[in-house]
Amino acid sequence: MALKESAERVQSRLRDMGYDHRVVELPDSTRTAEEAAAAIGCEVAQIAKSIIFRLSGSNEPVLVVASGVNRVNEKLVSSSLNVKLKKADADFVREHTGFVIGGVAPIGHLERITTIIDEDLLKFGTIWAAAGHPKAVFSCTPEELTAMTAGQVMAIQ
After folding, report:
1. Can you say whether residue 146 is alpha, beta or left, with left for phi > 0 and alpha for psi between -120 and 50 degrees?
2. Which of 25, 59, 90, 139 suits 40 as a labelling partner, its CA being 20 to 30 A distant?
């Protein structure tokens, strides 16, 4: 079965970067970390949820890839980056990533996005990330995710 266009974009990006990971579309929603973990059969903490913020002033996007059990402490991340983060609305997310909230992948965006990786994801051998659609996911190691996103690992809570 063919992938949705946005999921195919993620699959193509994985292939272009030299990874053989497969994007899979699940029958159940993976819009939330809890739904994704239930559909995949893993711990909620193994879900790498992608949350887009915007920089106050420049309005540039920042992606925080967080463990499914963690909440992003915006003040801590802002302080670590020496910038002010603000919440991004659905239009901003789609405009900068090309994905809808609930399906934002950590790769395959419409533009280069500064990426922060939650250090808690490094506790796992395998993690699962959204793949461009609310029912699409792919698995990888935390180290692969860090490499493919050129992400900076840090505490987010």
Report:
1. alpha
2. 90
**In which residue ranges of the chain is pLDDT below 70?**
none
Q: How far is CA 118 from the centre of its chain?
A: 11
pLDDT digits (tens, 9 = 90+) for 94-137: 999 999 999 999 999 999 999 999 999 999 999 999 999 999 99
- The residue written with tokens 């965006």 in the block is 109
Burial 46-79 (b: 16+ CB within 10 A, else e): bbbbbbbbbbeeeeebbbbbbbbbbebebeebbe
Of 56, 75, 70, the C-alpha closest to 123 is 70
Closest to 129 in 3D by CA, of 79, 85, 64: 64
